[in-house]
From TrEMBL, chains A, B:
<keyword id="KW-0152">Cholesterol biosynthesis</keyword>
<keyword id="KW-0067">ATP-binding</keyword>
<keyword id="KW-0752">Steroid biosynthesis</keyword>
<dbReference type="InterPro" id="IPR029765">
    <property type="entry name" value="Mev_diP_decarb"/>
</dbReference>
<feature type="domain" description="Mvd1 C-terminal">
    <location>
        <begin position="200"/>
        <end position="379"/>
    </location>
</feature>
<protein>
    <recommendedName>
        <fullName>Diphosphomevalonate decarboxylase</fullName>
        <ecNumber>4.1.1.33</ecNumber>
    </recommendedName>
</protein>
<dbReference type="GO" id="GO:0006695">
    <property type="term" value="P:cholesterol biosynthetic process"/>
</dbReference>
<dbReference type="InterPro" id="IPR014721">
    <property type="entry name" value="Ribsml_uS5_D2-typ_fold_subgr"/>
</dbReference>
<comment type="pathway">
    <text>Steroid biosynthesis; cholesterol biosynthesis.</text>
</comment>
<keyword id="KW-0153">Cholesterol metabolism</keyword>
<feature type="domain" description="Diphosphomevalonate decarboxylase-like N-terminal">
    <location>
        <begin position="28"/>
        <end position="186"/>
    </location>
</feature>
<keyword id="KW-0456">Lyase</keyword>
<keyword id="KW-0753">Steroid metabolism</keyword>
<comment type="function">
    <text>Catalyzes the ATP dependent decarboxylation of (R)-5-diphosphomevalonate to form isopentenyl diphosphate (IPP). Functions in the mevalonate (MVA) pathway leading to isopentenyl diphosphate (IPP), a key precursor for the biosynthesis of isoprenoids and sterol synthesis.</text>
</comment>
<dbReference type="GO" id="GO:0019287">
    <property type="term" value="P:isopentenyl diphosphate biosynthetic process, mevalonate pathway"/>
</dbReference>
<keyword id="KW-0547">Nucleotide-binding</keyword>
<dbReference type="Pfam" id="PF22700">
    <property type="entry name" value="MVD-like_N"/>
</dbReference>
Length: 384, 384
């Protein structure tokens, strides 16, 4: 950590954090709303910062009149309960530490902070922007106020999935059992180096803002879905164990099948809420069919999909299959331009498509159905 | 009944039957495939024959070489197991009755039958064509061979939902408990005269054939969905009781809410199958939003939707609300032509739309999203 801030100088802290994408979801219901305690454990993969990154700068000064926050250049309401939870919790930890260490000359806790956060990807389009954002915010504030310890507990209170974004690689959010949430935290299952062949393609269907924010959706869900509790209690625990084992064995077929089943079941519980929530649109459904037909053609689970609270598909596959699968997407969702900018991020080699494969998939092409693809991979969290 | 056929003359029987639409579904899983025993009880409403009708003609003659069947003018395979089940079961009942009554001179059982069935609505577009078709087939064969008794037991073995189509009004299919299925039969809950204000609008989204036939979908579902059994065992029985009570009280708000929740949960279990099944498309989702926003505007459940194995919406409402709701659909799904043929079936009076209501619904209109509307109501089955 750095030293506590003393005196009147303005202190700046600048941090990066990567987005993390769920492969096993707890979205869809919470057992405690304010503390953000989930109804089941969950798992995610942290992605490379080059492609999906939040950069957060925090500053404090005795001259600041009040706490303020800017997201992507636009000032937002600092009084949002979740931002307040993070600020309050970090200040409480800082106060506790200082009283433990008797740093009585420190005055920075009285200082107000200015927070500035920028994403290099669309906010609230189902691309895990709040996970990366809150993880980065909490980490930056912890550096500013000189706080150590289990920061995933703090990040969780900003946005549940943010707790997983504090770590790189494959990360589990253990739901915990305690009422106060002190055991509801993130833990790395395997580091990013564990499965270097694993690749991630984000198929961006639409950058429009979602009709229903995922939070309001979740709250409705936990109250009205009759299937959600059954999923949390009876389906997820067993599948979660299978998933961790599949990752540890680097068994792509098992990993892929569980990922698809979890995504579908999550969206099933969204549809079972009242009124129902739809995150998948026609293009999402078409991507799902395409993946199943692709795998069917090879009699092998080579590619898997998962969808968060939006229509964009997150595709996992092994690096050998990336060039061909990109060509499949390009063929069935012909891009607007000549395709030069269709794939962003990690470079993808050329590949040709066999007529057999095209025929086996046999879907009607949808021009411009996919805006672009972000090609990325598993990485560290970006935090030191 | 008519007399058994004797000698060489050709005997013709001509029957009508109405389609019936589920308001509580058992689709999505069967406890016995061949006997078609469902995993939960279900409920449907039988509609007026003028709008959705099957006409079946059966003939038998000593000169016919083999059993044959034509659907909408095209010969189909008579050896389909479900058609065979119905033929076998009717002949078995006829044989039993004749041996009971010692009609030893009767020879018509050896005669082959020709079956000709015509729908006045698109086949396999999720418009309950198989329900009406098998109900009509079984009734026609029963007349031909002089069979009485619980024909819903026979119709069930053709197409599960056909057993409910044997009766008019509000019909329950009791799942039963016996292994041999003898107690899995249809029963009228209330006759068509019970709730004369109830009206039905079928919003035909697409007359294209479905990607996945509902039967193959169901078989996958019962094997792979982890939510389906929970729904059948823990959710449906309670809701079914509430639904019957709502119908008996003519409580539209309760009826409407249960109908929407059951439809959504059914489609949730389809999405939870592996690979997932999608019957709802973008237009279906838009109709769902439209209904919720319409009800929200009036702070009252005035309109309800339900979807079978296809994208077409079946709307229930009370007759007072029909003209305005039709205008709402016309406004948000502007038809191709001047709209003269947009509404088929029962005539609908004029209505105007307030700007308030348009603003409250606030969806982007989708030209030609709905091909046409069938305006109909609850009726008898059409069978004598």
């Amino acid at each position: 950590g750095i030293s506590p801030v003393v005196g009147s100088k303005k202190t700046l802290i600048n941090c990066l954090n990567a987005a993390s994408f769920s492969i096993f979801r707890s979205l869809g219901g919470k057992r405690h709303e304010e503390l953000i305690l989930p109804i089941n454990s969950s798992l995610s993969v942290t992605l490379h910062q080059d492609q999906l990154k939040t950069t957060t700068t925090v500053a404090c000064s005795r001259h600041f009149q009040e706490d303020r926050i800017w997201l992507n250049g636009k000032e937002e309401d600092i009084n949002q309960p979740r931002i307040q939870s993070c600020l309050r919790e970090i200040r409480r930890l800082a106060r506790k530490r200082r009283s433990d260490e008797d740093l009585s000359n420190d005055i920075s806790l009285a200082h107000r902070v200015h927070i500035c956060s920028v994403n290099n990807f669309p906010t609230a389009a189902g691309l895990a922007s709040s996970a990366a954002g809150y993880a980065c915010l909490v980490y930056s504030l912890s550096r500013l106020f000189g706080v150590d310890g289990e920061l995933s507990l703090v990040a969780r209170q900003g946005s549940g999935s943010a707790c997983r974004s504090m770590y790189g690689g494959f990360v589990q959010w253990k739901m915990g059992e305690r009422q106060d949430g002190k055991d509801s935290l993130a833990e790395q299952v395997e580091p990013e180096s564990h499965w270097p062949e694993l690749r991630v393609l984000v198929l961006v269907v639409s950058a429009e803002r979602k009709l229903v924010g995922s939070t309001s959706g979740m709250q409705t869900s936990v109250k009205t879905s009759k299937l959600l509790k059954h999923r949390a209690d009876c389906v997820v625990p067993g599948r979660m164990e299978e998933m961790i084992s599949a990752i540890q064995r680097r068994d792509f077929a098992a990993f892929g099948e569980l990922t698809m089943k979890d995504s579908n079941q999550f969206h099933a519980t969204c549809l079972d809420t009242y009124p129902p929530i739809f995150y998948l649109n026609d293009i999402s459904q078409k991507v799902i069919s395409l993946v199943h037909r692709y795998n069917q053609h090879y009699q092998d689970t080579r590619v898997t999909y998962t969808f968060d609270a939006g229509p964009n598909a997150v595709i996992y596959t092994l690096e050998d299959h990336v060039p061909e699968f990109i060509q499949v997407v390009r063929y069935f969702f012909p891009p607007e331009t000549n395709g030069g900018e269709f794939v962003k991020g990690l470079p993808v080699g050329p590949a040709s498509l066999s007529e057999d494969l095209k025929t086996a998939i046999g879907l009607e092409p949808v021009p411009k159905g996919i805006s672009y693809i972000i090609s990325t991979k598993v990485c560290d969290s970006g935090l030191p």
